[in-house]
Amino acid sequence: MRSIRAVGAGDRRAEVQGRSGPSPRRPDAEAPAAQPAAPPRRRRGRTTAPILAVRRHRAGTPPADAPAPEGIRRARDQPPPGRPRPPRVGRRRPVWDTGPVPADRFDRATPPVAPTSPGLVVDEQGRGTFAVAAPRARAVDLCLRQGAAEHRQRSPLRRGPALGPRHRHDPRHPLRVAGRRPVGTRRGMLANPRKPLLDPWARGVSHSSPLLSAFFPFEVDAMLDRRDEVPQRSEVDSGDSAVWSVVVDDAFDWQDDLRPMIDWDATVLYEPHVKGFTRSHPESPPERRGTYAGLGHPAVTGYLRDLGVTSIESLPIHAAMDEPHLTRLGLTNYWGYSTMSYFAPEPSLATAAAQQAGAQAVLEEVKTMVRRLHEAGFEVILDVVYNHTAEGGGDGPSLSLRGLDNLEYYWTDHGVPQDVTGTGGTLDPRSVHTMDLVLASLRYWVQEVHVDGFRFDLATTLGRDDRGFRADHPLLRAIVTDPVPRDVKLIAEPWDVGTGGWQTGNFPAPFAEWNDAFRDDVRAFWLADRAARERTGEPGIGGVRDLATRLAGSSDMFTRQDPPGLPEGRGLRAPWASINYVTAHDGFTLRDLTAYESKHNEANGEDNRDGTSDNRSFHHGHEGELPPGDPRREEIEAARRRTARGVLATPLLASGTPMLTAGDERGRTQHGNNNAYCQDNEISWVDWRRTAAAERSRATVVRLLPARGEHPQPRAPHFLRPADPERLDAGQIAWFDATGAPMAHEEWMDPTRHVLVMSRPAVHGREGAEHLLVILSGAAEPTEVRLPDAPWPQGAAKVPLDTALESPEDLPPGPVGDRTVTVAPGGVVVLGIAP
Q: Which of 322, 323, 457, 637 is catalytic?
C-alpha cells in the first residue's frame, strides 16, 4: 500500500512525498536542492520505512511566476534524482499552496496518522488523512459537499488502496469511483463514477432513504429490475439523492459511564427491536416512542429492571436500506438486516429532532441510550450483520463496497456472486480488506459507543474459506484474540444457508452460540409432539431424552470439539456458551406457538411462501384466535396460557444462558406471521395494553428470574456429572420417572414417556440452600408424581412455582403432603427440598 501527500481542493494533483524529507515551506521560501531519499530506519529491533502522510493544505491560485514550494511540484517538473517519473493519467492543472503550512510537531494534540489506515482521520487543526481500499479502480474521487455544490478531489492509485485528502468545508464526503472498464464489459466490476458511494468507514450518514432507481450502477426499469441481460451503465447522476457519508465528532460526555460487565452465568438476554419495543409505550413521551431515546427512557428501563433481565440484545441499528423486492411491494426492512454502513447508526431510529439536526445528533442519541441503559444496570449487545449488505446480489444497487471493488469485498466465482446467506450475495471473509473492516467496526462500537457485546448474524459465513467452515478461520481468530472484542460478549448465530452451514457448538471460545437444538427439542416436547399425539391418537410420539439433554446444558454439542487429554470435568466451553431460547425475532412469538400450527404471512406480499413451515407449534384445538362467543374459548385459552408458562420456565430452569424475546412475557402476537421482517406496524410492535392475561404472563417471568438468581443450580460453571446420593453437590444432576425411581436406560429410549423429573442438588454449606426438584409434564392428563425415596433428600418440600396456576397467590403455603404432587397437562412444578 503506497501513501501520498495531497494538496488543494477540487480536481487536484497529488504527489508521493515521504515524511523523512524536510518539512513543507512557505511559497516565498527558497527551495533547497533536492535530497536523496533517506534509507529505512531501524527502530525497536525492526526495519521501518519512512513514515508517509496525507496532509491537508489550503488551496489557492498563486502568481504565475511564483516558485514551487518545497515538496510540491508542477506536473511538468522533472522528478527528484533517483526517482522515476510517475505515470501521467490525463492532463492536470498545477496546484499551489499559497498559505503557511505548520510543520509537524511531536506535541500535537492528535498525532498524524499514517494514510495507510483506512477511513478518515482528522486532527484538531482540521488536517487529516483518508484511505479506502479499491484495488481494481482506475480512479477514486473524494467528493466534498458545500451546500448544493460538490467539489471533487482525485486520488491517484498506487497499486493498492486509493488515498485522498480531506477538507472541512462541509462534513459530507461521498466517493466516486471509475472502473478500469465500464459496467457490463468486465464481469463482476460495477464501478460507475455517476454514483456517489458511502465511505465504508464513515461514522455518520446524511439521512435515511428509500431505495431509488438512481442508486443502481446499470439501467433498471420502474420495478428496479435490470433492463437488459447485459447490464448497461446508468448515466443518471445520483448526487442529489444519494446517502452521503458524514464526518462526526467522537467526543461525548459519558459522565463516568461504567460497563455493567455481568458474568455469563448471571446473564439473562432480552431481544427487543429499538422501534417496536417502545413505539406504543404509554409512559414514554410521544416524541421518543420508537427511538433510541425511547429505549433509554426511565419508564422503559424501569420495566426491564422489574422484569429481571440483565442484557439487552438489540436487533441491528447499523444504517440500512431496503431490498429491491420490498420496495416493489411498498414494504420496508423493519428488522434492519440489510446493512449499508458498519459504523453509522440508522437515522430513522432516532427522534425527529435528532434526524433534523444531522448525523452528529443521531450518534449522540445512540450514545445517550447506551449510557442510560448502563446507568440502569443493563448491558447493551448489538446484532451485527457482517455476512452481507444492502447491496444484495448481482442485480442490487451500488451503495458503497460494490462500487469500490465488487470483486474484492464480495465472494464471487468468475464474477458471479456466491450466496450462502439467502440474500443474493455474500461478503468475502477471505479478503483482508473485509476482515479489516469488520474488526475496525467492532472496535469502534466498543471503544466509542461503549457497547458490551455483539450477536453475529449468520456467523458461519464469517468462518468460511474455499473448503467450507473453519473454527480457526483468520477472521474468527482475529475476533477472539483482538484485545477489544475479546473482552466483550460474543454470540454467534451458528449457521447460514450454504453447504455445511449448521455449525452449532463448533465456534471457538469465548463465543456463545444460539442453540437451535434447544429451541427445536423444547418446542417438540411442549408443542409439536403433543399436537401429533392428539391428531393421531398414537401415544408413542416424543419421549424425554432430548429434553433432558437440553436442560443439562447441551454438553453433546459444546464439548465435542474438546481436545483429548483434558483432565476430567474440564472443557474448553462451559454451559453458558449455550444460548437457550425458544423464540426469537424470526419465527412465531410465544403466544403464536400456542395458537397457530401454520404460518400466516400473507401481509408480506409473497403469497405465504416466505418463512419456515417447520414451526413445531400446537394450536390446542383451534387455529388462531377464537371468536368471543365460541363455547370452547375459555378452556382453550387456559390451556394455551398454561403451555406458554411452561415454555417460558424451561430456558430459565436449564443450564445455559436464557434468552427471552421482547413481548413474549406479555403474550405478544403477530397473528400467525412467522417472518415479520417487513412489518413496521402493529404486527411487530409490542402491545403495552395492561390486560389481565398480559399481567399474569409477565408475573410468571417476574417470579422465575429472581428464583434463578437465588438458586445457583441452573448457573453451573461446568457441565454436570451424574449425582451420587451419598455425596451430593451442585455440579451433579439426577433424573427420575413419575414414580420417583431413577431413570433406566430403557426408559430413556421409550417414546411413550412424557413426564420428566430433574433433581439438582444444593450447594454444600450454603446458608438457605435448597435441593431443586423440577417436574415437567407433556402428558395429556394430570399426572401424580411421587418424590424420590431415600437415599435421595427427604427434607420438607415446598412449591415455589407451579405454571398451572394463573397467580402466585394460589400456591400452597405449606410443605407437600405425602410426598406427592399433581402436575397439570403442559405444566411445570418446581419444589425446593430442605437438605
A: 457
Among 781, 780, 755, 776, CA closest to 831: 776
* pLDDT value, residue 48: 28
Tens of pLDDT along 706-735? 889 888 999 999 999 999 999 999 899 999
pLDDT at site 228: 86
Q: Band of the pLDDT at 138, cuts 50, 70, 90?
A: confident
Cα→Cα distances 674→100, 155, 592, 671, Å: 64, 48, 9, 9
Cα–Cα–Cα angle for 581, 586, 588, nearest 5°? 80
Q: pLDDT tens-digit profile of 149-183?
A: 787 877 655 433 333 333 343 478 788 988 655 55
Tens digits of per-residue pLDDT, 259-312? 999 999 999 999 999 999 999 999 999 999 999 999 999 999 999 999 999 999
Q: Name the strand (E) or helix (H) holding 513.
A: strand 512-514
Q: What is the mean pLDDT of residues 1-21?
A: 31
Among 50-59, 111-120, 158-167, which stretch is predicted with the lowest mean pLDDT?
50-59
Q: Is 457 a catalytic residue?
A: yes
**CA–CA distance, 523 with 517 (Å, rounded to integer):** 10
| pLDDT bracket for residue 128 (50, 70, 90) | low
pLDDT at residue 113 tops 90: no
Half-sphere exposure of 347 (CA within 13 A, CB side): 24
Do residues 324 and 396 lie in contact, with contact meaning Cβ atoms separated by under 8 Å?
yes
For the segment 392-413, the average pLDDT, to the nearest whole number, is 94
Residue 518 phi, psi dihedral angles, 5° rounding: -60, -50
3-state secondary structure of 492: strand
d(CA 179, CA 134): 10
- Which residues have a Cβ under 8 Å from the Cβ of 436 and sit 6 or more positions away? 118, 133
For residue 431 the three cell numbers come to: 479478503
Under 8 Å CB-to-CB from 607, ≥6 apart: which residues? Answer: none
**Residue 480 · residue 486 · CB < 8 Å:** yes
| Locus of grid cell 397473528 | 671
> Is pLDDT above 80 for 42?
no
Has 729 been annotated as catalytic?
A: no
Query: What span, in angstroms and rounded, lies between the C-alpha atoms of 322 and 680?
Result: 12
> Which among 493, 496, 637, 665 is annotated as catalytic?
493
Are residues 713 and 730 in contact, defined by beta-carbon separation less than 8 angstroms?
yes
pLDDT score of 450? 98
> Would you tell me how many other CB atoms lie within 10 Å of the CB of residue 181?
13
Nearest to 772 by CA among 783, 758, 784, 786: 758
Parallel, antiparallel, or unpaired: how do β-strands 657-661 and 578-580 relate?
A: parallel
Separation of alpha carbons 45 and 500, rounded Å = 45
Residue type, 119: G
Q: What is the mean pLDDT of residues 482-502?
A: 97
Interatomic CA distance for residues 749 and 747, integer angstroms: 5
The closest of 177, 171, 176, 235 to 207, measured between CA atoms, is 171
Task: State the DSSP string of 194-263.
Answer: TS-B--TT-S-BS------GGGSSB-B-TTS-BSSSS--B-----TTTSPPBB---------S-------
CA 675, CA 601: separation in Å to the nearest integer? 7
Asked if residue 320 lies in contact with residue 327, where contact means CB atoms within 8 angstroms, the answer is: no
CA–CA distance, 813 with 827 (Å, rounded to integer): 19
Categorize the per-residue pLDDT at 750 as very low, low, confident or very high, splitting at 50, 70 and 90: very high
Whether the CB-CB separation of 831 and 787 falls below 8 Å is answered with yes
How far apart (Å, rounded) are the C-alpha atoms in residues 146 and 370?
A: 33
What are residue 777's DSSP bridge partners? 755
Per-residue pLDDT band at 8 (split at 50, 70, 90): very low
What is the rounded distance in angstroms from the CA atom of residue 390 to the CA atom of residue 665? 33
